[in-house]
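Entry:
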Amino acid sequence: MRYALIAALVGILSLVIAGEPVLLFNGKDLSNWHAKAEPKMGTNKWTVGSPRLAADTSKLDITGPEGAMVNPAAKHGDSWDLYSKESFGSCRIELDVLVPKGSNSGIYVMGEYEVQVFDSHGKAKPGPGDMGAIYGANPPPVNASLKPGEWQHYVIDWQAPTFDAQGMKTGNAKFVKVELNGILLHQNLEMKGPTPGGVTGKESSTGPLMFQGNHGAVAYRNIIITPLP
């Protein structure tokens, strides 16, 4: 009981001294985002609108002018990744994601550490490439995925790596917590290095938020980042 109370007080204190939340996407345009050019792939197809599953449930239709960041890529290699102009260190990331049937994306914290986004609904035992996995590092312990076309909610508490004055790393990055649809998937998962496919492939004290866009259709909305101490 005593330790539970201490943990609760620490959590409350962390929230009190956290920075101001940043709404990273305004629901109207992509002015705060860069496309990561892929010369050997298609073209940047990210746009803004109201997505829903198409008649072909592996694709997305856009029904309105505002609301979400939508990548209507028809197949692997049809579009590009997208990353924020702003950079962050330790932070809490909250967002909604919509995945069509069989599609694949990823949330790259600081542009380098991927939380997998994948249509894994109904899979009995999720693996390292399924929804909620830390790609290449740790599979989710349970399948928390909703059906294709439903909005799903991630909460990611992140601790950035630390460096000394000479640029030498003094502490590894850590996924303090990863929740999907209210279910805890990872806790205090230390990262010795970045996962594949990031913005630079290198670690630093801050970095952008990146969404993988070169693997299929996906949509994101309600993207809030709260800096943490």
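The first strand starts at residue 22 and ends at 23.
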